[in-house]
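Human: We require from you a standard protein entry with sequence in single-letter code and fold as tokens, and nothing else.

Assistant:
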Amino acid sequence: MAIHYQTSEKEARATAEECGGAELFRADLEKVDEIRRMFREVGERVGPLYGLVNNAARFRRREALEITEADWDFIHSVNLKATFFCCQQGAALMKQAGEGRIVNIASLGGIRPWAAYAHYCASKAGVIMLTHTLAKAFAPEIAVNAVAPGVILSSGEEPRVQDMIAATPAGRQGTVEEVADAVVYFLKSTNFVTGQVLAVDGGLSQR
């Protein structure tokens, strides 16, 4: 098992211990060369790669008329560009092994528009389309799917979040464990389940 981190080494080590001593790999996902180097090291230190979960992301509120080029690049360099190149490099290792499963973490914001998060919503909508596209490009050996969380515990306490919880048919916010269950489902599924987006959002995306 391999875990990526950039600056949160302490947290990564704690997670690695919880996972039974997973290998740690540090890389700045804004830099494609570092992504390539990281996956090369994964192949050397861990061996064949079967599952990849792309969950690194950035989230920042900005009114549409206030978004700068720097704001746009800050979000997209990790949320979309890094996701693609991690998929690319991970798939190369999986092709060598003969099979694999990729799970991208999208967002309710990639399904439903949020006025103050145009750059974020665009990046996550891109992750969803990327998932559909790569499911075809990497078939049949590799299945590519996405999980789109709704309001989860770490989403914050701003008034908009409370409004979203109130609008959620399930009547509550979700948990990280529920998102993890969806990820595990895709990692264990057959290659006949691919190109899918599972919204773990209590039904909010259906309203």
Summary: The mean pLDDT is 94. The chain has two domains: 1-47, 50-206. The first strand starts at residue 2 and ends at 5. The beta strands are 2-5, 23-26, 51-54, 100-105, 142-149, 197-200.
